[in-house]
Amino acid sequence: MTEKYKTETAKKVSGTYGCLYCRTAASFKGETNRMPKTCPTLTHETLTKDISAYEQEPLRTIMQAADKTPFTLEHVLRSRVEELIFYCHDLGLKKIGIAFCVTLMTEAQNLAKLLSEAGLDPVPVCCRVGAVDYSEIGLPKAHPDKFAAICNPVAQAELLNLAEAELVVQVGLCLGHDLILQQTCKAPVTTLVVKDRVFDHHPVRALRAGLDTEPVSGTI
Ligand code: SF4
Asked: Going from the N-terminus, what domains does the chain have, and what CATH number goes with each?
């Protein structure tokens, strides 16, 4: 924790912040009187009101681009892929890495095509690059006598570093492999597709309807 928030850190003595059980989301409209007493907007005012980070680069530019991204000038909503293209153009990013799961290769190649058509320079890299067998890093295999390639997020990221990707887009990487990719990539990483093998990569279904919701078919 930054030194300047030290006194507020001391206030969080146990449990969690009010957001856990809040029913008003009052900070959204700045309605102080509707915020729960444990709302961090009230309990950690110095920290939550501190906008100094946004006054410096690169956050200043990112915040401005993010603000313009959801809508066109005609106030029409953009899809997430359209947002990605707009964001790249707005920030002047050209070389866009695509770190994809082998099960979503067609979708990743379709994304590359869309980025190319938009004048960008996509660099897709598959998760199984290197063709390294599970046994080489001591992982168990369902069929020990057969070859099975591990996901290789370090090589995936290093290839994108070598290609000098300015932004990396994740398409369906496994949980854990995505974290390794993020910490190995030199460029910032954004997620376009989150892997969810049960809900066809829509994890929000489990959050809206519960974990026992009927599975949805799709790629693994
Ligand atoms: S920040 Fe405050 S008002 Fe917003 S959800 Fe959390 S507790 Fe509620």
From this structure: 93-209 (3.40.50.11840)
